[in-house]
What does this fold into?
Amino acid sequence: MFKRNLLILTVLLAAVMELIDTTIVNVALSHMSGNLGATLEDTTWVVTSYAIANVIIIPMTSFLTSRLGRRNYYIGSIVVFIACSFMCGSSGDIWTLVFFRFFQGIGGGALLSVSQAVVFEQFPKEKQSTAGALFGIGVFIGPTIGPTLGGFIVENYSWPLIFYINIPIGILAAVSCYFLLTEPPVKVAVSKVDWTGIGLLALGVGSLQTVLERGQTEDWFATGYITLLTIVSVLSLAGFILWELRAPFPVVNLRVFKSKELSIAALLTFITGIGMFTSVFLTPVIAQRLLGFNPTETGLLLLPGAIIAIVGLIVSGKLLQSGVSPVIIVAAGFFCFIYFNWAMFNMDLDTSARAITDNLIFRALGMAFLTVPLTVLAVSSLQPKDIPQGAALNNMMRQLGG
It folds into this structure.
């Protein structure tokens, strides 16, 4: 029991570390921009490159786990993550930082989906809602606490520390996994690498993200390369879907979407990802650039909501376990989030920190009520051998929405 609990704590720590890095840089963008002599638009690629890498690698985690072995792949990913964290903190110009940030995202991809699969393995079928609540704490708290932690570090130290802080945590997680992590009970045999699928996925997602990131700045389709990348993205992703459905050993097994529960969960998780990551990206930028808050004040805006969200995650898990319909919990989550967006829509330059914090509490409750039932629903009807792929695709949809 002690080893089981320590393993759960370890993989949750690794997942939280990965998700914190999704948003910890948000409050440091202005400092990075000034320190590295870059525009804010160029500096946002520090966020975007990480997201692109995540979206590319996360759906491949099931394949890579089977090909390399779960223990080897997971520990190797942690090593890549902490090595690139060091290089990010040591970067002397913006594009070196973006380069290593991309590969940090490649390393971080495994820390999310594999962690979820490991947590769910530790609980019987009737207690999957408990597993969902535990993993949900990491999924939600990571992106939410990131700006708070980042604000404190930037205000009191310097921005490279937001990357260096990963190193001791990553080493601790890697050592713990070396002794505790085992191979999954059901392992899918892979005898051939699907290089075509990998290439189409990377090209399609990379092109799509570039279009979304640079489109408005470049006046969308009035710019040649935006038009070209849009065409490349559509053709690559369409080709990827057709290829993966026919390939004998697909890098991403899209056939798991035959599960109605996974398909519904993935769609709603995509919408949740839009809400979760948009709000934790825009709020710090607005607070610092328009309202004049310092990084610590900005980070503290999100902290009360993060604390309340932990309670919400536990409550939603208990409600599911007691037989409350997940439809009711998901509906309550969306109503809370709709109210949050309506309240933030009415914000102006005189809006107080207290008002923003109060609004963010509704965001936190909404996300908490959405995370657990959707995480459980995604894998509820899958065979044990398909759970890692289903978990990976659901996590990909959250990151893609973000």
